[in-house]
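REQUEST ID: PR-0412
SUBMITTED BY: lab tech R.K.
PRIORITY: routine
TASK: structure prediction, single protein chain
INPUT:
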Amino acid sequence: MNSVAAAHSDFSSSRQAKYMDHGSTYRPLLIEVISEGPHCVPCEYAIAAVEYVCESYPEQVEVRIIETKRASDAQRYLELSRELGRLPPMPSVFIEGRLAFAGIPEPGELGSAIDAGLAASGCQG
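STATUS: complete
OUTPUT:
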């Protein structure tokens, strides 16, 4: 595993560990970034934008990086594709399983989308 992939794995693992303290009734807002992998520069920008914005929501969101070339993530990519009715673009950002951004999200727009998702789920950011 290269250093970028390891960093994504560590980032996701550290976020998941935080949520275990909330008990089984609390579930953070799920944000998934679709990426081809570290070689995809726009995908890396999208990941960086999501990570940057999500720093403001440390307990309210869970970020997952879905790398389409990683066997363990391919199934999730196919699930999201079926639900969308087509293959999502690279990169793309899903919030709670719905396509929110087809491309690199602008931080202000992503923050607004997260706020809306949190309000809809009953949590406030």
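NOTES: The first strand starts at residue 29 and ends at 35.
REVIEWED BY: pending
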